[in-house]
User: Fold this.
Amino acid sequence: MISNVRVESAVLIDWMLRFADKIVENKEMLTALDAAIGDADHGINMARGMEEVRRRLATYADDDLGALFKTIGMTLLSKVGGASGPLYGTLFLRMGVASVGKSELTDGQFAAALAAGVDGVRQRGSARLGDKTMVDALLPAVVTLQQALDDHASLCDAMEAARRAAEEGMKATIPMQASKGRASYLGPRSIGHQDPGATSAYLLILSAAEAICHATRSDAIAEPHPG
Ligand code: ADP
Ligand code: MG
Assistant:
């Protein structure tokens, strides 16, 4: 039997630690993508922010998920800089507002919190689908996540579907011409390159899928065997 995962502080911290590892591992790749259509700092910006998040979470002990997301959001806001710092900061601050006073989220609450975060990114940056930004990875992910949960998928399966949608969205930025952010200054010369922010956003969704599916399996193992 597949058990339902408890989306609590430990799972969300695992998500963030996995994201930090992936950002640091892919720092040069993200910076190379930004060198092609921006100013070659996206990997550096994100690694600076996520290394600080990792430091703060190492000793973090507060069950309130609102406080956890607020800590992550404020850290990214103050450390990342560029266009992506305020956008990722907003994503987590909004997830925090959606999680205030909760020590655990249901599948639906987790999906709603992530959707609120992505809404925050869209409001703050006013980017739409097709503008060649992180929204092209994030929005398909949250839409697919909600659809899969509506179809009664487990949170792990729904996150795996969301991960695939984010990956497709990330790759779909290659033929797009940028109309938001620094890459838009290049006009048609932005075509043919994968957007760096969509790439880090894919890593965010990938990390969430990994953390949630890992927690699901650990729960299933911990469950007493029936009969
Ligand atoms: P900067 O462009 O200031 O150097 P970064 O290099 O850290 O900042 O981040 C660039 C990424 O930010 C882009 O690849 C894009 O995905 C994202 N981005 C830029 N502007 C916007 C916006 N208005 N809305 C959403 N995402 C944006
Ligand atoms: Mg840049």
About this structure: The chain has a mean pLDDT of 95. The longest helix spans residues 196-222. Residues 7-220 form a domain with the Serine Threonine Protein Phosphatase 5, Tetratricopeptide repeat fold (CATH 1.25.40.340). The longest strand covers residues 7-8.
